[in-house]
């Protein structure tokens, strides 16, 4: 019992010392002492690399690229936010994860060559795409789908209603015209306007 207590106290002291040391490094960084960056970064680099391997689906080349980008980004951003960071490991982990997400997004954009909103909707609603995706791709697909949903929700009501009837409920132009008591040409015009609005919004994201 005494041995266990001593071990707990020792671990507690070590943790406190580590926190204090990191706080001092953050303080130095906030004052412009760039040498402190490497002491802080290297203490977490191995952990971050392991996380990169996991987030990049086991691809070590992509993991190394992600870690390299994360190093550069941390070098640029860490001194700016150093005086506000209370948990450097958590901050660096979140930043590195964001870098990995960006790389996945780049890969998906390159592979898809998305040019219009119809292609986006077709891909995102494809069961085949979902069944072949790895966990990281699924995460990004969910993120893209959320952006699509938000963009649709921001459409003017008359455009949103017409767009939803066409692409979500898969109604024909004639059926939509009858339901909304408008002409077929008006339906087509609203659909085109909705496409253009979504293209502008999603183009910035994709």
Task: Report on this structure.
This protein is mostly helical and 206 residues long. The protein has ten helices and no strands. α1 crosses α2 (35-55), α7 (135-153) packs across α10 (184-205) and α8 (157-167) packs across α10 (184-205). The radius of gyration is 25 Å and the shape is elongated. 19% of the residues are buried. Mean pLDDT is 77; it is low at 123-133.
What characteristic shape results from the CA principal axes?
Answer: elongated
Strands, count = 0
Task: Give the structural class.
Answer: mainly alpha
Count of runs of 4 or more consecutive helical residues: 10
Compute the separation of the termini in Å: 58 Å
Biggest sheet, in brief? none
Report the order of strands and helices. Answer: HHHHHHHHHH
Could you list the spans in which at least 5 consecutive residues all have pLDDT below 50? 123-133
Give the C-alpha Rg: 25 Å
How would you state the average pLDDT, rounded? 77
Share of helix, binned: over 70%
What is the strand content?
under 5%
Write the layout of secondary structure elements.
Layout: H1 2-30, H2 35-55, H3 60-81, H4 88-112, H5 117-124, H6 127-132, H7 135-153, H8 157-167, H9 173-180, H10 184-205
Helix pairs in contact: 1-2, 2-3, 2-4, 3-4, 7-10, 8-10, 9-10
Give a short overview.
By secondary structure, the chain is an all-alpha fold. It has helices at residues 2-30, 35-55, 60-81, 88-112, 117-124, 127-132, 135-153, 157-167, 173-180, 184-205.
